[in-house]
Amino acid sequence: MGATTSRGRLDKRAAILDAAFEVFARRGYAQACVQEIADAAGVAKPTVYNHLSDKETLYRHAVTAAADRVGAECLAAITRLRESEGDPQAALRDCAYRLLRVCNSDRSRALRTLTFAQLTTFPDLADLVQDRTSGLLADALADRMARLTLAGHLRAENPTRATEQLLALLTGPLDSRSRLGTRKVPAAELKSVAEAAVDTFLAAYSG
User: Fold this and answer.
1) pTM, rounded to two decimals
2) Structural domains in the chain?
3) Inter-residue contact 38 to 12 (CB < 8 Å)
């Protein structure tokens, strides 16, 4: 009974955080209200306060939960690089496209918008979001670059720098095409950006 109750509480908390992030993304921090979040989560307003004491705490936890989900999606997107053998072009293209899809998702774009919109109010959240999304990805991708270098597929004396340059080749065009995250980019454009970025990267680093 205790385990079931605990699981139910965790599920309810997750539902509240999902609803809160959606409402904050749509309305902004100042305009969002706890009652609207409670309605979206399908719970009573006191239930929200029982799980998260106030609006600021709710916002912080909602943003953190969203960042963790985006970070996990980024890591999942580069899984193929761990498994690939031989010429890495196909694996890099596939991973690059998957990463762009994550960055182009509604959650990622909303997370970015909220983080910058509330930068003066919650400056610490910018570092938290970066650490749990792009920072987490960069560390994992640098590890993959080091493995590809050891296998003789890349000439990356500094895997961290190589990772930064590949990500720049991806995010630069995405920022431009998405108008800094305000427009959802079609899949065909994402694929084109991914392929061009990988081809440029390999022209410089291919073993």
Assistant:
1) 0.91
2) 1-53 (1.10.10.60), 67-205 (1.10.357.10)
3) no
